[in-house]
Every structure is written in structure tokens, then in C-alpha cells.
Write a structure and sequence with these properties.
The protein has helices at residues 11-14, 24-27, 38-45, 60-67, 159-166, 172-188, 203-209, 236-242, 260-268, 277-297, 304-315, 327-333, 364-374, 378-384, and strands spanning 72-73, 96-103, 118-124, 131-135, 141-144, 155-158, 194-199, 213-217, 221-229, 232-235, 247-251, 254-258, 318-321, 342-345. It is of the alpha+beta class and 393 residues long. It has one domain: Nucleotidyltransferase, domain 5, CATH 3.30.420.590. The relative contact order is 0.20.
């Protein structure tokens, strides 16, 4: 099955500010939960950074367990999960590969109306002293396999649409994540230890709990989603309802501390940017790193109440696949990785590489980078190809 022009192909076209965030995450809490490893993984995600370089976590294992009870868990990787032969399992031995999928969900949306417009592969080498983020362009042409749970027969689609087709016919977010995971495994050769679906809209509260983050705007852009009414930020549809004069939200060049709504809005923009979605990918990676840095440097690690409030906020914005590794083991075993150890990588030299039909294909160098991830030789690949590192302002 191939997506046609009359089928939804862009999450931005579906955005309706009248619809607040879905509670599908909450409904899953009734399922048996294990201690999620995601809190440690947020050294890359940024929301729930519990361990920083040279720092300890107050309360240890008991606090980690208590403060992560509200995070929903699902099998998001399905057939793309790393096997024992590939190094997967219940220990921290070897490299760790995670798939991060970002959605912008609103409460009245059905689970099968979403795409994953943010797709990031997180790679932690076996040395556990670094973390790499690789963004997959949303318009990458992929071959999505047939997927029984959603009754999808397979076809040539964009990467962002694989999530959509996996979520159809009641398969929901879990089905969307499983189909996207399998599609990416088939394309890159990378199997995953786990995965996470991030509701970026829900991250506003996380950033605000952190007291905002510092972001550096590298090119001026006007928001396509937000307006100011009487000095108050509002979704475009809500602003129109007021009947009052509206003012553009303009993100101007320079570094500044941003509140949650502002940082998320900036990281969501792609129209009006020189390199479109590639610039958006880079800005989203920067936001993740900025959140990790703020968590590590804000005194949160020595404040149990602060840790708890941030994790509670994050739990409302995450659905996770934690594999077989216990959170406490993950936290304590990877304490050498910190926010400053995050390396942001880009595919296709950070520019659109199309195949003539509006979709992207990976360059040979990008394919080599995926192979380096699979073989856990990414550090050497980056040394040999420094141009794959995304610039940070």
C-alpha cells in the first residue's frame, strides 16, 4: 500500500490547537510496570537526568524507583528488538541503541491520527562514556513491511508515515512504533534495545519544572503555530477565537533563556528555515541537550523533591519500551555519561537529498554511519568524518 495525495502526509497539516494532549498514556498505567530505564536514558532525552558527571543521586535506588512509577511501558520495538545474538538482553554489556519518536498529540485525536515527525536514533557505545543522537529526516523514503496488527499490507512511504500506518485499525501508538522500528531496522540494519514515544507538547511542563532552558537561535524564524494576544502566547486557532489583534511570535537570533512553550515552539519550526526539516532536527537535538545540561547543573541531583517533580512531569509525556534492563542498574551502570557527552549527528550533510518525488534518500556516507552504529564503531567514524557532527551555537 502506498500513500496517495488524498491521504494525510504531514503532521503539521493535522495540528489543531483546540485539541489538548491525549490521555492514552494514562490508560496504559493499569498494566504491570517495571522500573523504567528511561530516567537514565534522559541523559540524552534531557527530561529526567538523574546522574551527572561527578555527581551522586540523593536517595539512590529507592528514590529512582519511587519517582518513576507513573511512566507507562509498552513493547514499542516488536520485531526490531535486539536479540541475544545481537547483544541484547538484561545486562548493560555492550552498546545500547534506542529509538526516540516524537509526536505532537492533542486529547481529542484518535491514536491512529498521528505521525512521528521526530525520529532520533540514540547510540551509546560499549564504553558507555558517550551518547550520540542521529536524526532521521521525516521525508525519508522507506519500504514499510506488512504489519498484521494494523492490517497494513506494506508499501513505499515517508518515514513519518510508517508510524501512521502502524497505528491504524486499533493498533494505536504501540503499533505505530513497532512498524516504524521494523522499517528502520530493515533500512539501517540497526536493532533496538528499547524505544520511547515523546509527546513534545507535554514537555512544556518538564522544561518549566527545570526553570526553562538556554537556547541559541541561529536564524530568525516566525512561528507557524503560535500567536501573541495581549502579550500572552496562544495557539493560532485559540488566538483567532478571541477576535483580538494578534502579534507574530518571532524567534530572533541570539542566545536566551526560554520558557517551555517558547523553547518547544522554536524547536518545532521548519518553514522559513534555510535547510527546512534539517534545521528543525538540529534545533530539536539542541533542545534535548539543553534540557540535559539544565537538569545536571540546576542542583536537581541533590534535591529529591525537584527530581520527583521533574520525573512526574516527564511521565505524563512518555511511553517507553525499557527492554529487560532494570532502571536502577541502568542509572548506576551508566553514570559516566553526562549532558556534555552528547554528540549531535546529521545525515546527508544536513541538506535535502531528494529522489525527484519529494522524498529523501540517504547518501553513501549516511549509510556508512548507520553501519558504524551497528558495528559499534561510530566514534571512529565521527573522527574520520567530522562533517557529520551538527554545529551547536
Amino acid at each position: 500500500m502506498t500513500v496517495t495525495a488524498d491521504q494525510p502526509s504531514d503532521l503539521d497539516d493535522l495540528l489543531d490547537p483546540e485539541k489538548p494532549a491525549p490521555r492514552e498514556i494514562k490508560s496504559r498505567k493499569a498494566k504491570k510496570e517495571r522500573s523504567p530505564l528511561w530516567a537514565r536514558l534522559s541523559v540524552s532525552l534531557g527530561a529526567v537526568l538523574l546522574v551527572a558527571s561527578g555527581g551522586g543521586l540523593v536517595g539512590g535506588k529507592v528514590l529512582i524507583s519511587k519517582t518513576t512509577e507513573n511512566i507507562a511501558l509498552e513493547n514499542l520495538t516488536g520485531d526490531a528488538k535486539k536479540t541475544a545474538e545481537e547483544g541484547g538482553g538484561a545486562t548493560l554489556d555492550g552498546p545500547i541503541d534506542m529509538l526516540l519518536m516524537g509526536v505532537d498529540a492533542r486529547e481529542r485525536w484518535a491514536a491512529d491520527e498521528l505521525r512521528s515527525d521526530t525520529i532520533i536514533i540514540l547510540h551509546i557505545p560499549a564504553s558507555h562514556d558517550q551518547a550520540y543522537l542521529i536524526s532521521i529526516p521525516r521525508d525519508t523514503e522507506v519500504q514499510a513491511p506488512a504489519f498484521g496488527p494494523s492490517k497494513y499490507s506494506g508499501g513505499t512511504v515517508k518515514a513519518t508515515e510508517a508510524f501512521y500506518w502502524g497505528a491504524q485499525n486499533g493498533a494505536g501508538w504501540t503499533g505505530g512504533a513497532q512498524l516504524l522500528s521494523k522499517t528502520l531496522k530493515d533500512m539501517t540494519g540497526i536493532s533496538f534495545d528499547g524505544a520511547g514515544i515523546i509527546n513534545f507538547g507535554g514537555f512544556k511542563k518538564v522544561i518549566d519544572e527545570l526553570g526553562g532552558v538556554k537556547m541559541c537561535v541561529d536564524q530568525q524564524v516566525t512561528s507557524k503555530h503560535m500567536k501573541l494576544v495581549d502579550g500572552k502566547e496562544m495557539w493560532l486557532a485559540d488566538a483567532r477565537k478571541t477576535g483580538k489583534p494578534m502579534k507574530d511570535v518571532v524567534h530572533k537570533v541570539g542566545c536566551k533563556d526560554m520558557e517551555g512553550w517558547e523553547a518547544l515552539d522554536y524547536a518545532r519550526q521548519r518553514y522559513g528555515l534555510k535547510n527546512g526539516d534539517y534545521d528543525r532536527q538540529r534545533h530539536q537535538q539542541q533542545l534535548i541537550k539543553a534540557m540535559a545540561k539544565k537538569a545536571a547543573g540546576s542542583g536537581m541531583l541533590t534535591n529529591p523533591l525537584k527530581i520527583s517533580s521533574v520525573i512526574q512531569a516527564a511521565g505524563e509525556a512518555l511511553v517507553l519500551d525499557i527492554g529487560d534492563i532494570e532502571l536502577t542498574d541502568f542509572v548506576l551502570g551508566l553514570s559516566g555519561v553526562a549532558a556534555n557527552d552528547l554528540v549531535l549527528l546529521r545525515t546527508n550533510n544536513g541538506t535535502f537529498s531528494g529522489n525527484g518525488n519529494g522524498r529523501e534518500v540517504f547518501t553513501d556516507k549516511s549509510k556508512e554511519m548507520f553501519q558504524a552504529v551497528k558495528e559499534d564503531k561510530l566514534a571512529q567514524f565521527v573522527l574520520d568524518n567530522p562533517d557529520v557532527v551538527a554545529t551547536e551555537k
